[in-house]
Amino acid sequence: MIFTIDARLKKYSWLDYGLFLQTVMIAARARGLDTCAQVSFARYPGIIADHLDLAAGHDVVCGMSLGYADESAVINRLEIPRESVDGFASFAGFEEYA
User: Fold this and answer.
1) Overall domain count for the chain
2) Domain, as residue range, for 37
3) Structural domain contains residue 91
4) CB-based burial of residue 5 (10 Å sphere; 0-12 exposed, 13-18 middle, 19+ buried)?
5) How far apart are CA 13 and CA 6, in angstroms?
6) Contact 41, 62 (CB under 8 A)
7) Full-prediction pTM beyond 0.90?
8) For 12-59, what is each residue's pLDDT tens digit?
9) Residue 77 within any structural domain of the chain
10) Could you give the C-alpha distances from 39 to 48, 52, 55, 72, 97, in angstroms and in order?
11) Does 45 map to a domain?
């Protein structure tokens, strides 16, 4: 799937769009499907617009694969370490609840 947004919309609309994408991914998972959002598609807006006959004034947000993961494929068993929340975020005002 290719997701686009009206180019006139500002950064807050992009936040809404991110929430929408997350909801699509959660809904797919609830139905037994797997997804993979791919921002790399945003680097090729002209090619995508030509192939999909997109209207002018739309920015490509991302692509998303949708389907059933092949659990036997080695690539689907790759584990990538994650940064702990403390490594990139701080929370203030919650000390009294700790």
Assistant:
1) 1
2) 2-71
3) no
4) middle
5) 9
6) yes
7) no
8) 999 999 999 999 999 999 999 999 999 999 999 999 999 999 989 999
9) no
10) 13, 17, 20, 26, 38
11) yes
